């Protein structure tokens, strides 16, 4: 397996997991449970939300794939590629109507520039 493709796959899984977990936490069922006093019902509503469960599954798959990346690359080379997740999350967030400020976009561009510099070696 191509290590770069595996690393990008990890980024994609991570970003997808984030948006799934956000969707689960924004669901009516979870918000209703969180409005109640904390207890097993609240924890159950959160932990049994399909979006949250699938989000954690994606995180798990990404972690397993990340092991393959780390077996082949130095952490100092691999980890900066995780910065691409910021750009992808910004684009997906913008596409679904989240507020994306100019400063946030500039910050993400700087992160991407850093990823390019690190990966050039």
From TrEMBL:
Keywords: Cell membrane, Membrane, Plasmid, Transmembrane, Transmembrane helix
Major subcellular location class: membrane
Transmembrane feature ranges: 51-71, 78-96, 102-120
Membrane topology label: Multi-pass membrane protein
Record protein name field: EamA domain-containing protein
GO molecular function, one term: transmembrane transporter activity
GO cellular component: plasma membrane
Subcellular location: Cell membrane
InterPro entries (alphabetical): EmrE-like, Small_drug/metabolite_transptr
């Amino acid at each position: 397996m191509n290590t770069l493709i595996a690393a990008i796959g990890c980024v994609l899984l991570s970003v997808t997991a984030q948006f799934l977990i956000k969707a689960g936490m924004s669901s009516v069922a979870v918000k209703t449970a969180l409005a109640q006093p904390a207890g097993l019902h609240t924890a159950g509503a959160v932990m049994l939300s399909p979006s949250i469960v699938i989000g954690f599954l994606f995180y798990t798959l990404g972690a397993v794939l990340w092991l393959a990346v780390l077996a082949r690359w130095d952490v100092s080379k691999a980890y900066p590629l995780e910065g691409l997740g910021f750009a992808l999350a910004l684009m997906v967030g913008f596409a679904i109507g989240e507020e994306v400020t100019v400063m946030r976009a500039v910050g993400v561009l700087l992160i991407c520039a850093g990823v390019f510099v690190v990966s050039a070696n």
